[in-house]
Amino acid sequence: MSKHVVVLKGGWSAEREVSLTSGAAVAKALRQQNFQVTEVDATPEIARVLTELKPDVVFNALHGRWGEDGCLQGLLEIMNIPYTHSGVMASAVAMNKPLAKKIFRNGGIPCAPDCIVNRAELFERDPLPRPFVVKPCNEGSSVGVVIVTSDYNLVSDQSGPWQDSGDLMAESYLPGRELTVSVMDGKALTVTELKPHAGFYDYEAKYQDGKTDHIIPAELDGKMLEQIMSLAEKAHKVIGCRGVSRSDFRLDDGADGDNIPYILEINTQPGMTPLSLVPEQARHCGMTFGQLVCWMVEDASCGR
Fold first, then answer.
1. CATH class (in words) of the domain with range 94-111+175-294
2. What is the pLDDT of residue 162?
3. 0.85 exceeded by the pTM?
C-alpha cells in the first residue's frame, strides 16, 4: 500500500498564499507518483487533525512563521510523525536572521554588517550609513523588506508588515548580482542568477510570472561557481539542515566590487510553486518535479 502523505499548506503567516500554491503543486505531483495524499490547510487545530488522519509522512509546504520556524516541527516530533525538510533546531535558527548570521560568520561564510534596532529608534536616526536594508528578524519571501536609500523617508512610509515588528534587523546594502543555490542532501545543485526587471528581488518579483529573469546556470567563471556552491553547502551544514535548503547570495564582481559572495539568508523550506527556484534547479540537473517531491517524502524523518 502506498504511503499516506498529508501535505500541509496555507496556514496563517504572511506567506499563506505562496504556501497554498506550493502545497497544491506538491499534492498533484505526489498523486501522480501514486502516493495517497490528503491536503490540509493548516490551522491552530492541526494536532487534532493529524491525530485523526494518521499520516505516514507530513510534507510541510508551509512558509513563514509557525510552519517554518520550528514550531510545527516540534509538534511533529512530539507526535512522532516523519516530516520533510529540516528539524526543530535548524528551522528555528534559520528563521532567526540575526542568529543565523552569527553562525554563518563563525563558520567563515561572509555576511553583510548588520545591527538590531527597535522600530521606534529607526524613526529617530539611521542605524547604519545609507543605503541600508531594513527587514523583520523572522519573516521569509522578502516580506517587509525595505531598502533605505539616500532620499527615502522612513517616517512617512507607513506601509509594509515590517511596521508591525518590534525589533528589526538593519543590514548594509550590498550592490551586485543576486544569486541563489539549492542544496539537496548536502550537495549543491547549481547557481542561478536572478535579474528583476525593476527594483530588487522582492515578494512580487519572486511570485509573479515575467517579473524576473532566471539565468541558470549563472554566467560566472568555474572557480566562482564552485566557491558559491561550496558556501551554500557549508551554510546547509553549519545551520544543521536536512533534505533541501536554498541559500541566497550577493556578489559584486564589477570593476569596483570586492568579488566576495555574501550570504543573505538560508531557506529551510524553499518554495515549490511553478516559479520556484529549487524545482527549476532540480530540473536543470535532470530531475523532474515528481522525482523531487518523491525524494523529499522518502527523505522525511523524525528525531534527527
1. alpha beta
2. 57
3. yes
Q: Is the dihedral of CA 173, 174, 178, 184 positive or negative?
A: negative
Give per-residue pLDDT as tens, 55-95: 999 999 999 889 999 999 999 999 999 999 999 999 999 99
- The two beta strands, 212-215 and 187-196, are antiparallel
Distance in angstroms (rounded) separating the CA atoms of residues 161 and 115: 19
> Residues with catalytic annotation?
15, 141, 207, 246, 248, 265, 267, 271
Cα 98 to chain centroid, rounded: 15
pLDDT at residue 158 above 90? Answer: no
Q: What DSSP line would sit under 219-244, residue for residue?
A: S--HHHHHHHHHHHHHHHHHHT--SE
**In this predicted structure, what is the pLDDT of residue 207?**
43
Task: Please determine, for residue 154, whether its predicted confidence score (pLDDT) is greater than 90.
Answer: no
Q: How far apart are CA 50 and CA 122, in angstroms?
A: 43
Q: Which one is the CATH code of 114-172: 3.40.50.1980, 3.30.1490.20, 3.10.50.30, 3.40.1190.20?
A: 3.30.1490.20
